């Protein structure tokens, strides 16, 4: 839909009003429970039947498509001067709609989130602001008649109603042990008031009279440990309703805490990149983030030349090498993604984090990791060839390759493609320099321990080869957490529990998970497979992940 919006914004000015009106017409006929192909959307808006070249795009759910089309209407109407006079019917701004229905401006904003279709119009005073057509308002009222009636019946709480509400809320908390969200829900039904009105009034009472607070648990601010616990539980698949009851917070508060912790992690995370002047140009996105041509050369080594290697290492030689042009494009893309993520995160406010901004930064960093992995895989055979030349010491080939892989990943982060050198030259120097230090050190360490216990020495060598200090574990953890947020709670829970991704690292079998979730073992396996397939699509190098 981003691509469609971009194409329509670049189209003829005289056609854009028709696109906006066609988008509204399409929204009105969409069934939220159905799925719609992209080609259908393009045809209904533009009248053009898109010729399919390649595999069909994934269908979009009606619910998501409605929201995307509302955004497209605003985005497109903002790209040119769409005037009230362009329509042969009355138009209204937010304030006039609020006066017409005797509601607050905030209520009108909530109506927009629930389907009141808006454009950005130029009114008679020459100023551009959010506007609504008379037919758009009438359609919304017909679709949400009860909601509108409830909003228009709104009146301020009287003192007696407020006292009665506080008395009822206190009894629900004391006798029924209700959470804040449950109290709000019950009182909304009993008193015939909007849930937001009840919530605001109760929280206002607790702020003004903390010694007589109804929800003592919500007055106290959550500490960092509790926020971290909420975040870990959320990633582990615990439902927000359960977290809301456990921590005596509304579901909205739980989401705010999750976003706050995400924002804190992103703000604290070091993002290092090699800057290039090309990154600051206005067309950097179009030039650098275009789909890679992927003209990788064929493997240079023959199977016979590596027949003495174990199968795992021998498989590395089936990964194609990168030619000079592909290598340059990938390194440029890798550094630009991190540059863009670093620039975007400067706008993050930890206390008032916007989920859309967090998602954008996380997706940029994840895509950077996908690009980095592609470079690393294409150069792993270089590590093997250098490691084979250093086998005279006490370390095994696997240990040397593991140590060399760390040097290779560091080299990817520090390589400046703009200097014109091939990466293999720089990486070879970095790997050999690391071996020049680590291999003699390992020999000396082995000589010091003349215990005769070879098992102890092997364990020490393994620990050295997989030294966690040499790997950016926090970066790996954050990337994993960002990936898990894209799954449904049940999918997250199964992956976290089955693979031991939680805090304790304990794993559970599919059979145990099935009993806990009241599902069959085979159904758990299917959900796990679906979740893994979803993650593979997200990080797929061929699909360029999130940015296409």
Supply database-style keywords.
single chain; 548 residues; Four Helix Bundle (Hemerythrin (Met), subunit A); two-stranded antiparallel ribbon; 62% helix
Quick structural overview:
By secondary structure, the chain is mainly α. It has helices at residues 2-9, 13-29, 38-46, 62-77, 94-101, 105-113, 134-143, 145-152, 159-176, 180-191, 195-208, 216-219, 224-235, 240-247, 251-268, 284-288, 311-315, 324-345, 355-378, 380-388, 397-414, 423-448, 454-465, 473-484, 489-499, 510-517, 521-538, and strands at 35-36, 60-61, 91-93, 119-122, 128-133.
Secondary-structure topology with pairs:
Elements: H1 2-9, H2 13-29, E1 35-36, H3 38-46, E2 60-61, H4 62-77, E3 91-93, H5 94-101, H6 105-113, E4 119-122, E5 128-133, H7 134-143, H8 145-152, H9 159-176, H10 180-191, H11 195-208, H12 216-219, H13 224-235, H14 240-247, H15 251-268, H16 284-288, H17 311-315, H18 324-345, H19 355-378, H20 380-388, H21 397-414, H22 423-448, H23 454-465, H24 473-484, H25 489-499, H26 510-517, H27 521-538
Antiparallel strand pairs: 1-2, 3-5, 4-5
């Amino acid at each position: 839909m981003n691509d469609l919006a971009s194409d329509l914004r670049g189209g003829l000015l005289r056609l854009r009003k028709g696109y906006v009106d066609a988008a509204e017409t399409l929204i009105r006929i969409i069934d939220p429970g159905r799925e719609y192909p992209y080609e259908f959307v393009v045809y209904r808006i533009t009248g053009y039947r898109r010729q399919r070249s390649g595999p069909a795009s994934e269908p979009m759910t009606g619910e998501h498509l409605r929201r995307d089309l509302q955004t497209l209407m605003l985005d497109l109407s903002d790209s040119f001067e769409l005037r009230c006079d362009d329509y042969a019917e009355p138009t209204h701004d937010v304030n006039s709609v609020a006066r017409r229905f005797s509601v607050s401006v905030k209520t009108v904003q909530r109506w927009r989130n629930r389907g009141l279709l808006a454009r950005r119009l130029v009114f008679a005073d020459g100023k551009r602001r959010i506007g609504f057509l008379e037919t758009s308002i009438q359609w919304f009222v017909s679709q949400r008649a009860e909601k509108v009636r409830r909003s228009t019946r709104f009146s301020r709480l009287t003192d007696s109603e407020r006292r009665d509400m506080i008395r009822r809320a206190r009894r629900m908390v004391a006798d029924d042990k209700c959470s804040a969200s449950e109290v709000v829900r019950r009182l909304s039904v009993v008193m015939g008031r909007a849930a937001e009105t009840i919530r605001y009034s109760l929280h206002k009472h607790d702020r003004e009279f903390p010694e007589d607070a109804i929800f003592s648990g919500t007055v106290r601010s959550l500490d960092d440990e509790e926020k971290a616990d909420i975040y870990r539980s959320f990633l582990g698949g615990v439902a927000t309703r359960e977290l809301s009851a456990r921590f005596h917070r509304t579901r909205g508060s739980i989401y705010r805490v999750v976003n706050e912790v995400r924002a804190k992690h992103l703000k604290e995370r070091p993002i290092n990149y090699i800057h290039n002047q090309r990154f600051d140009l206005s067309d950097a996105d179009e030039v650098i983030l275009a789909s890679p041509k992927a003209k990788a050369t064929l493997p240079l080594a023959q199977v016979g030349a590596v027949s003495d290697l174990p199968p795992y290492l021998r498989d590395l030689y089936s990964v194609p090498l990168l030619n000079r042009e592909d290598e340059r494009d990938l390194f440029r893309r890798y550094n630009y993604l991190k540059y863009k993520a670093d620039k975007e995160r400067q706008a993050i406010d930890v206390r008032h984090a916007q989920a859309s901004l967090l998602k954008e930064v996380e997706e940029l960093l994840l895509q950077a990791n996908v690009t980095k992995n592609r470079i690393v895989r294409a150069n792993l055979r270089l590590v093997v060839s250098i490691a084979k030349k250093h086998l005279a010491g006490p370390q095994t080939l696997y240990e040397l390759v593991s140590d060399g892989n760390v040097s290779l990943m560091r080299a990817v982060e520090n390589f400046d493609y703009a200097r014109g050198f091939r990466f293999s030259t720089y990486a070879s120097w970095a790997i050999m320099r690391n071996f020049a230090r680590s291999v003699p050190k390992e020999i000396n360490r082995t000589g010091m321990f003349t215990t005769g216990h070879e098992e102890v020495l092997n364990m020490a060598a393994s620990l050295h080869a997989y030294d966690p200090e040499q790997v950016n574990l926090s970066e790996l953890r954050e990337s994993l957490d960002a990936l898990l947020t894209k799954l449904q709670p049940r999918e997250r829970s199964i992956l976290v529990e089955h693979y031991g991704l939680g805090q304790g690292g304990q794993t559970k079998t599919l059979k145990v998970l099935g009993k806990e979730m009241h599902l069959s073992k085979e159904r758990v396996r299917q959900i796990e497979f679906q979740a893994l397939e979803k993650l593979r699509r997200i990080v797929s190098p061929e699909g360029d992940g999130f940015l296409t």
